[in-house]
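Hello forum,

I keep getting stuck at the same step: I have a sequence, I want structure tokens, and every attempt I make locally crashes halfway through. Rather than fight my setup again tonight, could one of you with a working pipeline run this one for me? It's a single chain of 63 residues.
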Amino acid sequence: MRTCPQFAAMRAEYEREISYLSAHSKRHAGRSSAKASATYATSTKARMARALSGHVARCPECG
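Reply #2:
Ran it on my machine without issues. Output:
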């Protein structure tokens, strides 16, 4: 599937945020902040999927 630069930028931003949250969760294992970061990472993955699929549906270059 061919995608546009905006798709790549959105994906990179989401993946960067997910990696930060996951790293924080691993670094602070056992604390409540780690649980929160893991939850935020999971919800961010869902938001990324929703945002990227919506982009593909609207973008003439991606869709």
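The longest helix spans residues 32-58. If your local run keeps crashing, start a new thread with the error log.
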